[in-house]
Amino acid sequence: xxxxxxxxxxxxxxxxxxxxxxxxxxxxxxxxxxxxxxxxxxxxxxxxxxxxxxxxxxxxxxxxxxxxxxxxxxxxxxxxxxxxxxxxxxxxxxxxxxxxxxxxxxxxxxxxxxxxxxxxxxxxxxxxxxxxxxxxxxxxxxxxxxxxxxxxxxxxxxxxxxxxxxxxxxxxxxxxxxxxx
Amino acid sequence: xxxxxxxxxxxxxxxxxxxxxxxxxxxxxxxxxxxxxxxxxxxxxxxxxxxxxxxxxxxxxxxxxxxxxxxxxxxxxxxxxxxxxxxxxxxxxxxxxxxxxxxxxxxxxxxxxxxxxxxxxxxxxxxxxxxxxxxxxxxxxxxxxxxxxxxxxxxxxxxxxxxxxxxxxxxxxxxxxxxxxxxxxxxxxxxxxxxxxxxxxxxxxxxxxxxxxxxxxxxxxxxxxxxxxxxxxxxxxxxxxxxxxxxxxxxxxxxxxxxxxxxxxxxxxxxxxxxxxxxxxxxxxxxxxxxxxxxxxxxxxxxxxxxxxxxxxxxxxxxxxxxxxxxxxxxxxxxxxxxxxxxxxxxxxxxxxxxxxxxxxxxxxxxxxxxxxxxxxxxxxxxxxxxxxxxxxxxxxxxxxxxxxxxxxxxxxxxxxxxxxxxxxxxxxxxxxxxxxxxxxxxxxxxxxxxxxxxxxxxxxxxxxxxxxxxxxxxxxxxxxxxxxxxxxxxxxxxxxxxxxxxxxxx
Lengths: 181, 507
Prior knowledge:
Chain A has 181 residues and is an all-alpha fold.
């Protein structure tokens, strides 16, 4: 059922988004509503959390089936310069030391800053102890990932260093001040 | 002109921001591609860990359910071998229809299987499945280091997902585009983006839970350093069940039957899932029993008994905190062990999709370098050797695992490591090989080895109900992979004949 839901969602959205001339909001809304309905159906049949989790795994397969069904085969063509049409990564005269510093910022310092915020959450936020701990634990990889994205994109190393160092000191300091209770 | 023709120009999708994020996405992807690919490939296989366990050692008793008396009998039989250590009793369920008893004290490990009456039928020996699982969880490094690297890989994957979305201004316009055959770069970018975007919730879920599982040791360690002078036990004590005061004097085995009866009476809708007998044979023994019921992701009924059978802690679904529910669901959600075979297959396919996302990202980078006149043929060959070399090496370890299970425990890790180093080194230095040739050869080798695995299996075990489904799947997959195809298209002459990609999100 969830596979069929994915197929139906894919078909509705693809039909809408393929029409370059007209807005087709009904199909877009319909597509997302079918997804919500399928997820609710799975939650009803399997239990709330197993149903939602199963929908996250099975519906995308149906959607990807629609993508594969609509694949276009093209003939191989001679190269021509269309690079201007595509987003291209920045290619400055990057130096090795900048790469190492970015690595340190995205790695150890990003992790420390993420832990600082997460531990602050665990210590200062209201709620059951286990809930605060688990949400804080989930925050660590999530915030670290965000910090990694930002520091690798940001060309201003001093700004990244200052923000991550400040966040780490503040986070760990505030968490240490109150302690776990 | 309709909405879908417009490319957002402002906010997060400003061209300078997109290019900067794309740059970071590219660097991160290139730096972590090999380990992300390995972790995702082994993860996709580990989804079927229970199926591999049944397959690897067929013929042991299948048990749909067991009586309390059978459990008591089984525990009594292994108790003398367990001594004062911890014993784990895993109850049978639909996915793993075996009654398993495990003793693991860090120095030695025993896994027994009991039949429906509780008679010990033998010891479990599934070294290849354990090799695969350990490779996924800790890369066969010491637990803390290996777990950290896998956790860091999860963070890198999470960050790549974020930067991938942020560097894709036409995420809606391109949502259903899959253009094959024209430009290598465009084709790979379409695979990269379609598989990355439509399965994004799944990718996010497994990378977040995987990162947390891998980083848990360092998170607990850092929290303990900050608040408890490094005493990690105090952090774990906030999450784990209570323990009785230490009393190492000898005592008889706790009355397991009475405890199971108490649990049945107090939670009649729940079925036993796991029992952990800590310090069996001591006065400070405790018995922790977790139970599961339909409609929940993880076991949410739990009891902790002391050695005299008194309930020290009792929890049921309505009384659990959100944190306890998350803690119980992490592993289940990460591996897809909650919705039967359909969900496992979906997890396996989406895990492979994540491998394709990783591989296509590197292909886009390599094709872009060629388009710009900076081809890196050695990297093309090295990547080809990783892309199809890892499945081939894993398939070879499976052949060894089936042919000589008593040997694979000792050689699998070194075989995998040695062949990985050898294949990467060989492809890096042997310039006369093309990446397309390497891919073709290793793909077909993988297919051939899968078929050989099944043939060796059938020779050794015959046709067994425990192995039928996996043997059919491995045979079909092996034949598909081994089937001859046209040459790959990233070899030097071929790639020169295709145009550069127009809409890549991977540099």
